[in-house]
């Protein structure tokens, strides 16, 4: 197994630790920042999430730079992204920070795209992610990180950056999903 795939696997292995941090009754105290508060466990979970999300850039960069792109990596990388994002958004529902309907739309889009990719794989095709999909992922990751950080540092200026990025992520999720299906509809029409 090459280094980029090991990096991707490390992202997958960080997910259960991230989940445990946010679900176990851990109380490491609270940071008070003026009128705003941030549980330290949420801060640690946000850091772990940012590290895990950062491995997505590192494995992709390393795989392209050293020509180490493999079929295993093409499978593992998007799966790791979907697992990390889905776990984080579901936990944010439980924490009362994200409406469930938004997460349902986001996760449904991921299932639909994965289904289309499976049909394409059955036809011997590999469907690459487009630029809009990459922006979607970026805004999802930023929204999750800022939600976990309780909108720090934007809470100081009373700007709901976390909510703004969440809704941008939602819009990009829908638009990129529609765009992906339109561009790749020939796969569905040509499948047996």
UniProtKB/TrEMBL annotation:
The chain crosses the membrane at residues 12-31, 43-62, 83-107, 163-182. GO terms for biological process: phosphatidylglycerol biosynthetic process. The keyword Cell membrane applies. InterPro entries: CDP-alcohol_PTase-I (IPR050324), CDP-OH_P_trans (IPR000462), CDP-OH_PTrfase_TM_dom (IPR043130), CDP_ALCOHOL_P_TRANSF_CS (IPR048254), Phosphatidylglycerol_P_synth (IPR004570). It catalyses: a CDP-1,2-diacyl-sn-glycerol + sn-glycerol 3-phosphate = a 1,2-diacyl-sn-glycero-3-phospho-(1'-sn-glycero-3'-phosphate) + CMP + H(+). It is found in: Cell membrane. Its main location: membrane. One of its GO terms (molecular function) is CDP-diacylglycerol-glycerol-3-phosphate 3-phosphatidyltransferase activity. It is a multi-pass membrane protein. Keywords: Cell membrane, Lipid biosynthesis, Lipid metabolism, Membrane, Phospholipid biosynthesis, Phospholipid metabolism, Transferase, Transmembrane, Transmembrane helix. GO terms for cellular component: plasma membrane. Its EC number is 2.7.8.5. Pathway: Phospholipid metabolism; phosphatidylglycerol biosynthesis; phosphatidylglycerol from CDP-diacylglycerol: step 1/2; Lipid metabolism. Pfam families: CDP-OH_P_transf (PF01066). This protein catalyzes the committed step to the synthesis of the acidic phospholipids. Belongs to the CDP-alcohol phosphatidyltransferase class-I family. NCBIfam families: pgsA. This is CDP-diacylglycerol--glycerol-3-phosphate 3-phosphatidyltransferase.
